[in-house]
């Protein structure tokens, strides 16, 4: 038996196997790193604020924070963390996930509640390139959800926040702005 292992070691099988495993691990790490880097550089990855308007479209009825990840290679976009920050009494009671796609200047999402099974719907928004939002990543469109035996829709605005924005500061500023 000793002679067998001595032959294996001397012939380089162990060194070849170990170096192959190490090379596979390094290659896997590089692939993951470059995927992360590519998705991080997407114009849609980051923190977004959604503002759902009331039926008369005169004030913001609900405000949520969306943490989006965009895969540029296939256009898929996901939000693993969506949570309500306004109104104050809803703040800790709702959270969602969403998945969707980016097609040209359109974002299309389907969302579902994590805490409440009856909280679900979809969001369809398009880039707002009007003069007041030129150069900003502001999308406007519809927030649609089932309610009892009908489909309810509201206007929604999704605004991407600058990279590096501090979440606590953003939440405090938005709550102050909407509470006035």
Task: Explain how this protein is built.
This protein is an alpha+beta fold and 180 residues long. It has two domains: 2-40; 46-179, Beta Barrel (Lipocalin), CATH 2.40.128. It contains three helices and eight strands. It has helices at 2-11, 13-40, 167-179; strands at 46-53, 60-70, 76-86, 95-103, 106-113, 120-127, 138-147, 150-160. It has an eight-stranded antiparallel β-barrel. A hairpin with an 8-residue loop joins strand 3 (76-86) and strand 4 (95-103). The mean pLDDT is 83.
In short:
The chain is α+β, with helices and mostly antiparallel strands and 180 residues long. 28% of the residues lie in helices and 42% in strands.
Oligomeric state of shown chains: single chain
CATH topology of the largest domain: Lipocalin
Arithmetic mean of pLDDT = 83
Instruction: State the order of secondary-structure elements, H for helix, E for strand.
Output: HHEEEEEEEEH
Number of helical stretches of at least 4 residues: 3
Q: Could you state the CATH homologous superfamily of the largest domain?
A: Quinohemoprotein amine dehydrogenase alpha subunit, domain 2
The number of distinct β-strands equals 8
State the CATH architecture of the largest domain.
Beta Barrel
Portion of residues in helices? 25-40%
Tell me the number of structural domains.
Answer: 2
Q: Biggest β-sheet, characterized?
A: 8 strands, antiparallel, barrel
Which band does the percent of strand residues land in? 35-45%
Radius of gyration, in Å, reads 24 Å
Widest beta sheet: strand line-up? 1-2-3-4-5-6-7-8
Distance between the termini: 82 Å
Give the overall form.
elongated
Structural class: alpha+beta
């Amino acid at each position: 038996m000793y002679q067998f292992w001595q032959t294996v070691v001397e012939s380089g099988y162990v060194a070849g196997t170990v170096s192959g495993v190490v090379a596979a691990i390094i290659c896997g790490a590089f692939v993951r790193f470059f995927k992360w880097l590519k998705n991080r550089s997407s114009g849609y990855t980051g923190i977004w604020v959604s503002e759902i308007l009331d039926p008369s479209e005169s004030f913001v009825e609900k405000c949520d924070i969306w943490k989006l990840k965009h895969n540029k290679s296939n256009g898929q976009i996901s939000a693993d963390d969506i949570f309500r920050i306004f109104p104050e009494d809803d703040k800790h009671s709702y959270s969602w996930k969403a998945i969707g796609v980016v097609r040209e200047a359109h974002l299309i999402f389907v969302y579902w509640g994590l805490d409440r099974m009856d909280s679900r719907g979809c969001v369809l928004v398009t880039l707002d390139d009007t003069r007041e939002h030129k150069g900003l990543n502001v999308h406007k469109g519809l927030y649609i959800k089932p309610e009892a035996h009908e489909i309810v829709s509201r206007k929604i605005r999704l605004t991407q926040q600058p990279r590096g924005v501090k979440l606590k500061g953003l939440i405090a500023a938005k709550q102050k702005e909407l509470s006035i």
